Amino acid sequence: MSTTLPPVELTLIGIGTGNPDHLTRQAISAMNAADLILLPHKGEDKAELAALRQSLCDAVLAPGTAVHIAGFDMPVRRSQGDDYLVQVDEWHAAITMRWQAAMADALARGAVDPSRRNALRVALLVWGDPSLYDSTLRIAARMQPAPVRITVVAGITSMQALTAAHAIPVNDIGQPFVVTTGRQLREHGWPAGVDTLMVMLDGQCSFAVLPSDVAHDVQIWWGAYLGMPQQLLDHGPLAEVAERIAATRAAARARHGWIMDIYLLRRSPAHSTSGCA
Fold first, then answer.
1. In which pathway does it act (predicted)?
2. Homologous superfamily of domain range 8-156
């Protein structure tokens, strides 16, 4: 794309877990103040995700708004090999190029007019909050030229939505907790010194492969599609509900073509004396 980008003001807006009620007034104001909102498309099997973002825009953008909404195709991360960090780096570089191409295309077609301001105001809608296990800020830092300003609008995280749905606190009194990923749990086991884990980004049900001596006396609180009409919840002793949760997750993913889930694991303090691989 040959169109030269003007100065860009980038706003990253946390949108919670897909429920319009999760949008703050600050988020709604930021969406209406944008010239361009970019929505990622992740293929036909995840078309519902793009539709959810579009429905949020439809719900809160003022009638007759000049905000232009443009989609871009998300590149697929290479998954072959064990060079995970290199794969992620390549993927982020590709996403940056797609962002900038979408901005340039909107300018070339006259869909946005940055001349009325000093910069093109571009917004991206981020699931949950841009600060928690999301790379939008890192991708934004790759833009060339760099945005003249990056603004972050905080959003409700899936962690908050999970604990609210189950009506539980995230930690015991005076005790720490760890937020981690399924990959970390599989490869490194239960972290030392903590009894509570909040596990995100786990497509392989890593809770089901914990050694029996680690999983003993562990409770799990699981949730998927949190805050949405199709919300799913389960809770109980890990040894009793792990297979049920895994089966429920697989069926839901097959039905919808995608799934976003998260879970909390808590064990008794008697098992916290050392890390377990």
1. Cofactor biosynthesis; adenosylcobalamin biosynthesis
2. Tetrapyrrole methylase, N-terminal domain (3.40.1010.10)
